[in-house]
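Might you be able to consider the sequence and fold that I enclose below?
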Amino acid sequence: QVQLVESGGGLAQPGGSLRLSCAASGIIFSIYTMGWYRQAPGKQRELVAAITGGGTTNYSDSVKGRFTISRDNAKNMVYLQMNSLKPEDTAVFYCNAFFRSQHWGQGTLVTVSE
């Protein structure tokens, strides 16, 4: 059974930082492309960042230069370091695993506010 469990969400001030973590189990982690998506209230879910098993990364234009995705294949973990947070980054962030099929975590809420 595939499980993706996110952690690290919470409240941050504008300009602040948060680090999200996702623990994966039930998959051959190293062959999966891992991604972080987010869904803000009233908006569609969108890709934030993705990283292949070999470490190639891809970012949405809205987070380039502020967010960094990384993975530890030995620990079956993927991370999202979020710096210079803005109020518009407020959303539920979801961990995603993709290889022939997609798997989702339950999401973790990130709120950026004074």
Remarks:
- The first strand starts at residue 3 and ends at 7.
- The CA atoms of residues 47 and 74 lie 25 Å apart.
- The radius of gyration is 13 Å.
